[in-house]
Amino acid sequence: MSFVIFVVRWDVRSGDSLLSPFRLMPFPTRFTVGTMKVLITGAAGLVGSHLARRLSNEHEVLALKRGDLDITDRDAVRRRVIEMTPGLIINCAVLQVDESEQNLAKAQAVNVDGPRYLAEAASEVGAEIVQFSTQYAFAGEPLKRAPYTVKDELNPVNVYGRTKVSGEAAVREACARSYIVRTSWVYGSGKKSFLCVVHNDLRTGKKVRAIDDIWSSTTYVADLIDRVMTIRATGQYGTYHVVNDGVCSYYEFAREAGRVLGLTGAQLDALIEITHERDMKRIAARPRYTPLRCLLSEQLGLPPMRDWRAALAAYVRG
After folding, report:
1. 93: how many CB neighbours lie within 10 A of its CB?
2. Is residue 265 part of a domain?
3. Which of 138, 142, 76 is nearest to 109 (CA)?
4. Which of 77, 194, 235, 241 might form a disulfide with 292, Cβ 3.0–4.6 angstroms?
5. Is residue 273 part of a domain?
6. Does the pLDDT at position 303 exceed 60?
7. How many angstroms separate the first and last alpha carbons of the chain?
8. pLDDT digits (tens, 9 = 90+) for 106-147
């Protein structure tokens, strides 16, 4: 029998425990995890719905939509969690970017208070909690900077980002057994966002408009779930950046989807119209350049996630 010894230090800036570089050997690929009770909130959304389907194959899953549980109701949250006594709570509920900008009180309730109440309940029953967060934690300047890590300053440019950062802190404070998962530009089947449907639009010859001056990491939802469950199996609590490798704009994403479909450059030029963020007249500001890198995954010895092009190809050919 062999043993692995880790030296753990505490990162006072991010609130994360990070493995010291004096590890004696790499982290094992995965601990054995048996069947457990999993409570998922925000189960009607892209990530929540995919999580519910995937995890229900191995675990007892209670997938709750907004009408099933109002996470901003502390008493209701506590009752439901005590009733189920899950081993794991995964919070996918969120108030999105522009709506957060329009309704600060609701953004505070959904993105900060709700996660806090779930984390409090998790702590009370001895559960772990996964809280999803966002690349909007960062300012996105300057262009072409190195990917953001947990060591970088948190400096959101909109209400959504500020409330998501506050939600992270609320979860860490309320439950020591917490995984904060920042991700970016998540796509997959079941949602009608640009990233989710652009390949189908191009396949049918429909013209699309694509922004060419905002860049970030993209994340295929199947890869996101795989990595989150691998992280959970390590038992190493902290803040993770979970994205596919590389960075692209919406325009580059669209062209790559078309390339995978076998469309020629001339066909793509005719189908994809370039537009700019300033022309979209969106309610909330967006950070311009927010690729992510996960230091904790690297220190745990987890393999890099596949390149965004490979993940997109798997989705398009799916």
Report:
1. 25
2. no
3. 76
4. 241
5. no
6. yes
7. 41
8. 999 999 999 999 999 999 999 999 999 999 999 999 999 999
Choosing from 117, 148, 160, 315, the catalytic residue is 160
CA torsion sign, 270 to 271 to 277 to 282?
positive
81 within domain boundaries: yes
Residue 253 Cα distances to 25, 190, 212, 219, angstroms: 38, 18, 10, 12
What tokens appear for 123 in the block? 């702590």
Catalytic-residue membership of 160: yes
Give the domain CATH number at 111: 3.40.50.720
Backbone phi, psi, residue 255, to 5°: -65, -40
Say which DSSP state 212 is in. S
CB 241 within 8 A of CB 176: no
> Residue 211's CB: how many other CB atoms inside 10 A?
20
Which is it for strands 16-19 and 8-11: parallel, antiparallel or unpaired? Answer: antiparallel
Specify if 201 maps to a domain. Answer: no
Nearest CA to 166 out of 112, 123, 206 is that of 112
Number of domains in the chain: 1
The residue segments making up the domain with residue 119 are 8-187+218-244+291-298
pLDDT digits (tens, 9 = 90+) for 233-250: 999 999 999 999 999 999
Alpha carbon 100 to chain centroid distance?
18
The rounded distance, in Å, linking the Cα atoms of 149 and 4 is: 26
Q: Name the amino acid, one letter, at 164.
A: K
